[in-house]
Recover the amino acids of this structure.
């Protein structure tokens, strides 16, 4: 016979309700991870990186449209930068670090370019919209050249006041 004392058998385990009301079977692989955006904290940085990439693409697309679209593009570019920073902050606990790093660097580059072009477009909105209207109404090449010259003169007057 063995020298270890015998223990009475433990009672069967009953499922307990989780925080979201679902039944927890006690299985350690599924306990606490029931889906949703915070199911696996190691996947959150990848999601943020992809969200940043999508927002940067939207910003790049939107900054070449009318005024409301350019403003929306600048807002999307700022959101892309925020999502990229959040992805980089969660990089330590992530599984696919290289993928996240590359995605966020591409997103930062694209969003930065979109912010730069959208910001310049907003600063010089009156001049650029006047040029676009002039070109759309111009029929000849010489008319388009006159529009170009007028825009350049207007920009020169804004950037170098008194030198015109």
């Amino acid at each position: 016979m063995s020298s270890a004392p015998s223990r009475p058998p433990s009672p069967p385990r009953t499922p307990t309700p989780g925080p979201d009301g679902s039944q927890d079977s006690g299985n350690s692989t599924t306990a606490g991870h029931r889906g949703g955006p915070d199911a696996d904290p190691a996947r959150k940085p990848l999601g943020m990186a992809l969200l940043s990439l999508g927002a940067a693409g939207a910003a790049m697309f939107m900054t070449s449209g009318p005024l409301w679209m350019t403003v929306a593009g600048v807002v999307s570019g700022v959101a892309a930068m925020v999502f990229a920073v959040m992805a980089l902050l969660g990089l330590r606990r992530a599984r696919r670090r290289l993928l996240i790093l590359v995605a966020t660097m591409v997103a930062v580059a694209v969003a930065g370019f979109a912010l730069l072009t959208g910001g310049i477009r907003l600063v010089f909105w009156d001049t650029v919209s006047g040029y676009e209207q002039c070109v759309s109404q111009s029929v000849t090449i010489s008319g388009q050249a006159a529009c170009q010259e007028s825009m350049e003169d207007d920009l020169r007057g804004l950037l170098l006041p008194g030198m015109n």
Summary: The chain has a mean pLDDT of 82. The CA atoms of residues 33 and 58 lie 32 Å apart. The first strand starts at residue 16 and ends at 17.
